[in-house]
Amino acid sequence: xxxxxxxxxxxxxxxxxxxxxxxxxxxxxxxxxxxxxxxxxxxxxxxxxxxxxxxxxxxxxxxxxxxxxxxxxxxxxxxxxxxxxxxxxxxxxxxxxxxxxxxxxxxxxxxxxxxxxxxxxxxxxxxxxxxxxxxxxxxxxxxxxxxxxxxxxxxxxxxxxxxxxxxxxxxxxxxxxxxxxxxxxxxxxxxxxxxxxxxxxxxxxxxxxxxxxxxxxxxxxxxxxxxxxxxxxxxxxxxxxxxxxxxxxxxxxxxxxxxxxxxxxxxxxxxxxxxxxxxxxxxxxxxxxxxxxxxxxxxxxxxxxxxxxxxxxxxxxxxxxxxxxxxxxxxxxxxxxxxxxxxxxxxxxxxxxxxxxxxxxxxxxxxxxxxxxxxxxxxxxxxxxxxxxxxxxxxxxxxxxxxxxxxxxxxxxxxxxxxxxxxxxxxxxxxxxxxxxxxxxxxxxxxxxxxxxxxxxxxxxxxxxxxxxxxxxxxxxxxxxxxxxxxxxxxxxxxxxxxxxxxxxxxxxxxxxxxxxxxxxxxxxxxxxxxxxxxxxxxxxxxxxxxxxxxxxxxxxxxxxxxxxxxxxxxxxxxxxxxxxxxxxxxxxxxxxxxxxxxxxxxxxxxxxxxxxxxxxxxxxxxxxxxxxxxxxxxxxxxxxxxxxxxxxxxxxxxxxxxxxxxxxxxxxxxxxxxxxxxxxxxxxxxxxxxxxxxxxxxxxxxx
Amino acid sequence: xxxxxxxxxxxxxxxxxxxxxxxxxxxxxxxxxxxxxxxxxxxxxxxxxxxxxxxxxxxxxxxxxxxxxxxxxxxxxxxxxxxxxxxxxxxxxxxxxxxxxxxxxxxxxxxxxxxxxxxxxxxxxxxxxxxxxxxxxxxxxxxxxxxxxxxxxxxxxxxxxxxxxxxxxxxxxxxxxxxxxxxxxxxxxxxxxxxxxxxxxxxxxxxxxxxxxxxxxxxxxxxxxxxxxxxxxxxxxxxxxxxxxxxxxxxxxxxxxxxxxxxxxxxxxxxxxxxxxxxxxxxxxxxxxxxxxxxxxxxxxxxxxxxxxxxxxxxxxxxxxxxxxxxxxxxxxxxxxxxxxxxxxxxxxxxxxxxxxxxxxxxxxxxxxxxxxxxxxxxxxxxxxxxxxxxxxxxxxxxxxxxxxxxxxxxxxxxxxxxxxxxxxxxxxxxxxxxxxxxxxxxxxxxxxxxxxxxxxxxxxxxxxxxxxxxxxxxxxxxxxxxxxxxxxxxxxxxxxxxxxxxxxxxxxxxxxxxxxxxxxxxxxxxxxxxxxxxxxxxxxxxxxxxxxxxxxxxxxxxxxxxxxxxxxxxxxxxxxxxxxxxxxxxxxxxxxxxxxxxxxxxxxxxxxxxxxxxxxxxxxxxxxxxxxxxxxxxxxxxxxxxxxxxxxxxxxxxxxxxxxxxxxxxxxxxxxxxxxxxxxxxxxxxxxxxxxxxxxxxxxxxx
Lengths: 704, 704
Fold this sequence. Notes:
- With 704 residues, chain A is of the alpha/beta class.
- In chain A, a hairpin with a 3-residue loop joins strand 27 (579-588) and strand 28.
- Chain A is flat.
- The model of chain A is unreliable at 247-255 and 693-704 (pLDDT under 50).
- Chains A and B meet through helix 4, helix 7, helix 9, helix 10 and strand 18 of A and helix 4, helix 7, helix 9, helix 10 and strand 18 of B.
- Chains A, B: This is Acyl-CoA synthetase.
């Protein structure tokens, strides 16, 4: 357990000002206006008093201890005043000032300087280039955001100060409160992990992040707390252009988004992708219990709206709940099927009757109430009744569609803490996120495993395997040669076709005669050759010696013609075509070892049917991973095909995981295709990239 | 040209009432309160006057002509009063009353009765089971919606009355107006087509539809008007469950959504999928010019929000505009790249300066302005400046993120007719729809062709082809036998492998020896056999006579074992594997002949990579169709593959179109796979379903 976040009883504002146009004034004003109960020490070289409070010229002049200093002076002066804070042993310093990493190289140097100043001291730093910090529980507004939110045990950690300002405005207008608002700024010292680890007693956290500073730690914190405390994350930078915008914004290069999303979800973070979703989802998590499963009832006085809502509901992976005959009897006046159309002339009493019947149904896990303003509609009374439904302990969301007429109802629902939105699709988006998180929590069987140090194969094989690596290293290679790959996969029990590297055509002929047999396959292997079939470097289904010799000469010519460096020709048993899969692994700089599974072969890119997970994984979770691909139904025997043995696929993924775990020298492994049929499995093409090789990111994994 | 919609100078309300709780009162009240300038005749058996207006007991009693009758009496009485309306020669009757098709069989009969009553008369009927009609230009509110919208040449046609009520409330709250609001109800007589054809002078139309009554006419109207007048359509029933909800709602079974969407977009309808998108998109189309292309500038005082907006922008197929060096100079104070971060302390003047510079850029086709409420932010002044930017003639949308603080700004933007939303993703969704429509209009080269009566092949071949059909018919078949298919495809120049149906094994051996050659393929052909490869009914790559005989016996055994009716065994030349495509066509009951192209073979369902179009199509549009598939880059030579000759694929699609056009007896054609490589194209498996066969919907097309 780490100690509670901060205990601030005194604040110094360095760069405080009398001029209402300066941030140094706004910060002091915010402290005063929010009625901070501790001491305020404005530090100013010019003013005697600010807002009636005595000033000091340096923090060191202040006669008492200071728990927090807020710095709002020009960037060039920041190092000097920060040094004074360190001398004064101030535990937390917020640097509001901009002019650091976000401005380029010179700024980055200055930021580095700040880190050097606090190194080894008891002072921690938030920012620079941030909006500050609000702690509503202590009535502490140490920021230049002009908001004084009510208290509620919800925190918002934001890498964008401006989005924080919008959030605070939105929070207040929506009858919500917060505990901490933390503007991370450039994250020179304190980052999202620092706060996520310490805010474990809040009931809900929202994050806006442009990068994740330490991905592995971020996931570990998720593993520790996310089952008890939902964390909603909006991770910017899904697109390449957005990544550029981030670079020019905070000077940090964003990682690949699909990987980040998969990793975060694996560890229970609720990932949203728009600002609206972040805000809307937070409201529902703050006010409503979680659904126990994914079956929803819709009650609406507008049939059309219910139909469109159902479309969205199905798309989001939710389902319409079934109603018992008993309830259908109660509903006779309305339509008896879900979505339930209470009809355009429904008074509030009819809504009430139907909601009560529906919420008592076992199959109903959550309720969406839709209302449109018709002549008879009792908007406010209906809103009040909806508020009363909370007693059933199931999540209830509402959509009141319209303008001025329904706005009163929406406000009333807000006051009763029923998340209500203009449009049903918004409510369903939110409900889908709640349902996803609830199901994550329920998968208690799936405890994320702690990484074992070495695999069961390590003891017996590591000497030999390390020898293979040393040989490759001695040759200056950045991929393992084919013969070594073959040995490695044999030692780790990955089913691969018999395969021999041949120096000349007669050797190939002998190999086939003695062992491989016809039909066979000839292919070029070379460190630089990634897309073999694209250039005709693989000749399959060779039926006799004449064809073999011809194929061999053809590949030799190809090697000469294309000047393929370090090329060899390899003969292999021909494997009957089956389902083509891809299995791979790579070391991601931020999240560690990533496992990958999906549709392989020439369709890899076309299908984009690939699922990623952070290692290590239990076999059960590997099964889930496989089931998330689009090829899964075919593997399971769809369309009259024979099912393949999924456990044998998992064996391969597990072996790849073991290799990554046992040998740091492996940067990535790429098996594509892994051919599987009802009674065979065969890793036809395996590439192992060594760690010295630069730029072997996950992108390599979908090449073949 | 059809005449203007209605010219209503007098209205009778049948079932008028003094009781404020009755619809018959509300309707009279709405007419009076909206200040209808014509005569109002309440028809009531009980009251003498209603709201001070003299009543009559029957319409026939009214001494003057009546232009419009609104019926709000119990369903059982509707036929009787409708008959009186017909006698009185009232041109338009609105039946508000429910209790017709939407309630089941008995109601459907009653609805049929209404149609019989008006048959051959001059009376047209709107409804039954509807909310009525509003014509804001004539201050006519002949509905029970309690809204009196301002006039604007925008109409809303809705198959849900309740959604109409919500729409009207939203319209007023958003400073918009309307021309017609039309509640279609059960569409017994007048439907969407009737109104779409007549509302050609409005500048914008929105539709909510649960079914499209006459798809081909709907498309023709689109072809005629959609380039001049945008029509935004929300078509409910995307999901199966939603289709059920519709059935219970208006008693009409919805058609397949992907087909509907493709057909509507082909003819220029702007398809949206949520209620929010319908409302938000309408606002932007009403107020803003269209973008000339897809390049957008974003100006924001919140870097984070700009980054998230860029993510959405890219996902929607929009692009960030490039800025000239000149403009970058102007922007020096802000960040110089798009998205442009004017920084958190931006005053309205900085917004103004940047917006002006950006809007003068040639590469900027539209502008999104994002604002968050920070300490220095001048929300209202910035909103006013944004309003002033309309002079540049480019579409401008805004997103003011926050709560109470920004709401004033949003209201001001509404007043200045700048579509403004809380969240940038909403604005970008709308901008994507505008960009799509603008590009549709610009494709002037793509004039939808008028169907020629017969293809160029018809004259020479129709006698022989019809003979093939007669033979199949005589045998009672519902697919064309293989030999006939072979002849048909030869006559229409579809490249297919040489293929012979054999009665016994020796015949197969002779065929191969004399003509086909080794390797060859043997397969079972039978009318009931759709998924040949799934049951092992295709044996490929047969290399010699021994293998051929063995394969033949194997298929014979399979036919016996599976009791495949009317089966024959067919021998074919073996075609080297290439890209597997699917080409098909079917007659849809609603939209006519549909052409289909996509990825074929065993991956057809897995990929779901299929594009549909309504025939006839110009070759240029077939090319567009092909380019919309995910396999297109591979066909064009991605990844070192040789490009295939796309024109030869178009030849095949064209031939399929010709066949559908020339022979009504064909219900659908299914070529899967069509094998293509750099220098060959071959329709390996062709099935032709005959029209007598029931239930051959488009679903068959993705089977193989």
